Amino acid sequence: MEAAMTGKDRRILMDEAIKNIVIPFLRAEGFKGSYPHFTRVKHDRINLLTFQFSLYSSKFVVEIANCPSTGSIVTGKQIEPSKCRVHYEGKRLRIGSIKNKTDYWFDFNKEILFSNIYKKRAKEIIALWPEAEKWWMEDSRA
């Protein structure tokens, strides 16, 4: 009998799926950076994206924001554009929240019969991508 998977085991498999499926997609979309923080420079703003995992369960969010092309101001200090992160920005979106009309988390806790939950969640991010692109483009704050 196979031992039950721990949260750490699931996280390793989820990280692997993100690195093999989502990160090549992000690179093709023009993002630079390293896991979990990515940036894409546009002519008038910088698109930010980060992966944030729950400390308490096998779930994560993909959070996005824009920052001005000049960088952000955090607690009165100028942050250079290359150092900007999603969590510095007040206005942000969790991918999937518009479609699902809730604060959306990608849950990879339960195995799915005849399917790989980790690959499924990674591919779900790509399927929801138009939501992110639309939000970045329409955010007039940047």
Describe the oligomeric state of these chains in a short phrase.
single chain
Strand percentage lies at 25-35%
Average pLDDT score: 92
Structural class: alpha+beta
> What does the radius of gyration come to?
16 Å
Note the overall shape: elongated
User: How many separate domains?
Assistant: 1
Number of strands: 8
User: What summary fits the major beta sheet?
Assistant: 6 strands, antiparallel
Spans of 5+ residues with little confidence (pLDDT < 50)?
none
What distance separates the N and C termini? Answer: 54 Å
H and E string: HEEEEEEEHEHH
Number of helices: 4
Tell me roughly what share of residues is in helical segments: 25-40%
Detailed description of the structure:
Helix content is 33%, strand content 27%. With 142 residues, the protein is α+β, with helices and mostly antiparallel strands. The chain has one domain. A hairpin with a 2-residue loop joins strand 1 and strand 2. The chain is elongated. The mean pLDDT is 92.
